[in-house]
Amino acid sequence: MAATQTSTHLAPIAERADAPASLPSITAGDLTWRPAVADDAPALLDLRNTIAEADAEPYRETLEEITDLFDAPWRRFDTDSLLGVDAEGTLRAYGFVETMPGDTRTVRAFLFGGVHPDRRGEGIGRELFAWQLARGRQVLAASGKDLPARLGVFAEDDGPVAKLHLYERAGLAPRRFYTEMRRDLRDLAGAPLPEVELAGSLRLVPFSDEYDDAARLAHNDAFRDHWGSEPQTPEQWSRGRTAFVPQWSYLVVDDAPDVEALVADPDTDAETAAALRAGEPLVVAYEMAARFDEDFEVKGYTFGYTELLGTRRAYRGRKAGLAALAAGMRAFAADGMEYAGLDVDTANPSGAHGMYAALGFEVTHSSRMLSIEL
């Protein structure tokens, strides 16, 4: 409802997006440009990891992760991607524009791309980014969603200065900052994890498929008050799981929720209310974990990674999120992982920073999101 009220004071998205009638040409570097297709996954993986290594980024990708990008039905690679190939047929640059189908408060277009380190300084990145911005504006205008809108990029804080300057010259400004954190798990006897006793009808359970959609609904509720977050549809929720480790993931469920009170609460979303009326399980907190073996050598240690962590707003203060996180961290340690890892928005409104500090997490890396707000 809040998004609808805000949107009534905005000009139509087709006007605010200021989309060009045609897209700019890319002439720098004498490359041949075409949309990406699924068969490009191996070459795209090589390019992205080459860029990551050159820029000292703290992660690498796998072929499964790249292939998964092409499997998502909402991505339009035919219109929203470009690959730059040299005369020998080698991939030298790429650019994507991505929107998400679940956006209901702010309609967003994120821009991802890069140029091979050997081909930088030729103006390729500048022209490619101009194409991405123009296409992003077209995508926003065509969305038909008269909501606040955003063109956004992500950047490592210690990444190439030239890239940050490119974004800022194009009118994007820093809006959000993120920190990656780790916690040593090698001496749990000397630095133990908390033993959390859940009160009332709350119960900690391992992740299983029967709770999967209930976890999605919990996530959508937990992140409603987080800046930049949008609800995930079932198809979004089920994608991007090439590194997901169910046995490292834990949920807290309420076995006896006050259905009448929750359904009557105006903060309860329609999907949750329908699930409650149908007698479906109510997940109130979740910890969804992943394993990125390809990053172990880059970082210099093994780790389990908490990709998603949250607590329903009505259940905050009852240690449900802490119980799920501690259980996941114990699972990491039991499988020989040296550290627990996660990342967090520095302006997180749920008090997560205090919990992470109390658990012994330390900052290892930082990044930011820059955007044009429309």
Could you characterize what this model shows?
- The protein starts with a helix and ends with a strand.
- The protein contains 14 helices and twelve strands.
- A twelve-stranded mixed sheet has the order 1-2-3-4-5-12-6-11-10-9-8-7.
- By secondary structure, it is of the alpha+beta class.
- It has two domains: 2-171, Aminopeptidase (3-Layer(aba) Sandwich); 179-366, Aminopeptidase (3-Layer(aba) Sandwich).
- α3 packs across α4 (63-71).
- The protein is globular, with a radius of gyration of 22 Å.
Secondary-structure blueprint of this entry?
Blueprint lengths: L1 H6 L5 H4 L15 E3 L6 H14 L8 H9 L5 H4 E5 L5 E8 L8 E9 L8 H19 L6 E8 L4 H9 L3 E12 L17 E5 L5 H11 L11 H4 L12 E5 L4 H6 L5 H8 L5 E8 L5 H4 L3 E9 L8 H15 L4 E7 L6 H7 L3 E12 L1
Parallel strand pairs: 4-5, 10-11
Antiparallel strand pairs: 1-2, 2-3, 3-4, 5-12, 6-11, 6-12, 7-8, 8-9, 9-10
Helix pairs in contact: 3-4
Keywords: Acyltransferase, Transferase
Protein name: Ribosomal protein S18 acetylase RimI-like enzyme
Organism: Isoptericola halotolerans
List the defining traits of the structure above.
Aminopeptidase; globular; 2 domains; 24% strand; alpha+beta; 374 residues
Which regions are unreliable across 5 or more consecutive residues at pLDDT < 50?
1-7
Radius of gyration: 22 Å
Termini Cα gap: 19 Å
Helix content: 25-40%
Shape: globular
CATH topology of the largest domain: Aminopeptidase
How would you briefly describe this protein structure?
Residues 31-186 form the N-acetyltransferase domain. Keywords: Acyltransferase, Transferase. It is globular, with a radius of gyration of 22 Å.
